[in-house]
Write a structure and sequence with these properties.
single chain; elongated
Length: 84
C-alpha cells in the first residue's frame, strides 16, 4: 500500500464515523441528543439555535470531506485495483 492510499482511507474512515456521530446528534421531530446536551448547557432557546447551526455546519463539512475522499479513492483506484 502506498502512502496516498493509507492517508485517503484514514480521512475517509474518520469523516464517515464523524458524519454518523454528528447526524445522530441532530434533533429530529421529537427530542434528540442535541436537545439533551443543549438543555444542560443553555436554558434559553437561543443557545439551542446556535448549537443546531454549528451542528449543521460541522455535518455539512464532514459530508463534503467524506464525498471528496470517496471520489479521490474512486478515481485513483478504479474497480478494485488495490493489491495487497
Amino acid at each position: 500500500m502506498n502512502a496516498l492510499l493509507i492517508v485517503m482511507l484514514i480521512i475517509w474512515a474518520i469523516s464517515g464515523v464523524g458524519l454518523i456521530v454528528f447526524v445522530m446528534l441532530h434533533s429530529g421531530k421529537g427530542t434528540g441528543l442535541s436537545d439533551m446536551i443543549a438543555s444542560s448547557l443553555y436554558s434559553t432557546q437561543t443557545g439551542t439555535n446556535i448549537i443546531e447551526k454549528n451542528l449543521d455546519r460541522i455535518t455539512i463539512a464532514l459530508a463534503i470531506v467524506f464525498m471528496l475522499s470517496l471520489l479521490v479513492l474512486m478515481i485513483i483506484y478504479p474497480q478494485g485495483t488495490i493489491v495487497r
